[in-house]
């Protein structure tokens, strides 16, 4: 299923990928062109188990010529978390200060002797008008996994108006995440769930 074509990173499939023929160097980029100017809320990058950039950041542009860094999006490849549904490693960055862009790119900030394998490059719009809400997460069995909101160790937020990423992580590779539930109803089977709706919730 491998495919070296760069179009593989926007085909919506996690079993196809783009891989670089050479090791990554500072200044190397991977760029996605949006269908129209949009207010960016989140960027998801899916990588292979081993072939990840050493370090990078997300940048935006309106004309594909003048680029600016998106605040808070610098990351190390080692920080990517295993994403069970995609069978790859996910680096999820969401933007707390709205940014308007037509082009979004990953910019390599640290050289690596490794090549890079990217499976998907996802860009999401910024949700608007989220009313203050209280959100909490918990797990059925703490010996088998953990859950947090945005930052590891955070299990509840109060009067929050930002988009939130709920993350579930099994404590053992042999364990599998099942689902997020709300009031007894399954709302997602994705270990990384994006909450952008109004209302207090206890997952």
Briefly summarize what is shown.
By secondary structure, this protein is an all-beta fold. It is built from no helices and 16 strands. The radius of gyration is 17 Å and the shape is globular.
In words, what does this structure look like?
The protein is mainly β and 203 residues long. Helices cover 0% and strands 50% of the residues. The chain has strands spanning 18-19, 29-47, 55-61, 67-69, 75-76, 81-83, 88-110, 117-125, 133-136, 145-149, 156-160, 164-170, 180-182, 185-188, 192-195, 201-202. The strands form 4 sheets. Strands 1, 2, 3, 4, 5, 6, 7 and 8 form an 8-stranded antiparallel sheet that branches. Strands 11-9-16 form a 3-stranded mixed sheet, with no helix packed on it. A hairpin with a 5-residue loop joins strand 3 (55-61) and strand 4 (67-69). The radius of gyration is 17 Å and the shape is globular. The model has no long low-confidence stretch (mean pLDDT 89).
Count all strands and give the number.
16
Report the structural category: mainly beta
The shape, in one word, is globular
Distance between the termini: 36 Å
What string, H for helix and E for strand, traces the elements in order? EEEEEEEEEEEEEEEE
Number of helices: 0
Helix content: under 10%
The major pleated sheet works out as: 8 strands, antiparallel
What value does the average pLDDT take? 89
Q: What Rg, in angstroms, do the CA atoms define?
A: 17 Å
What proportion of the residues form beta strands (DSSP E)? Answer: over 45%
The parts where pLDDT drops under 50 for at least 5 residues are none
